[in-house]
Give the backbone structure.
Amino acid sequence: AQSVTQPDIHITVSEGASLELRCNYSYGATPYLFWYVQSPGQGLQLLLKYFSGDTLVQGIKGFEAEFKRSQSSFNLRKPSVHWSDAAEYFCAVGAQGYSTLTFGKGTMLLVSP
Amino acid sequence: ETGVTQSPTHLIKTRGQQVTLRCSSQSGHNTVSWYQQALGQGPQFIFQYYREEENGRGNFPPRFSGLQFPNYSSELNVNALELDDSALYLCASSPMDSSNTEAFFGQGTRLTVV
């Protein structure tokens, strides 16, 4: 069965500092990987996705993520965090041809002044 | 192009009652999936509908049921509500006929069971 682990429940980053959110997955085939962001009481917005090809993918709002098959990881990064980035971030894994997703438990990002 | 819309946005029900949540898929999308997100947790897959047929189900009891209509909109029905059913219910649509399996989410329905 597929699974996603986000080891950090909360992360606090100073505004302007760099950010890395960790995601490890377990999946028996080539995974489709996603990062979503959720503001309080809202739905999920897709930040970026990896299906194949270049292992470094660029997303919206200045985010990027790197797929490392050897480490079963898909970490999310941003070089300079803005206060508006404070939200909950979810990593998810899916399968080719199927749109059902398995999510991690999420990482809450707090941005300090 | 309209996005995924869900109704209602908030709902309060009493334990033992039944509830119906609604979802309109994004234009051109023929697949709808439903997820339950309990407080402090990631979304969990309930089931998926493709061309009006259930096309996969997560670990949820039969009192969670659904429908998809010819226009690809969908309903989630929950019978005999329990307190633990309190959660944000998210609907997602996607174009199943494409190899791109990206799912687009609605804003969710917040269900509170008292």
Notes: Residues 19 and 78 of chain B are 5 Å apart (CA to CA). Chain B is about 0% helix and 50% strand. The mean pLDDT of chain B is 92.
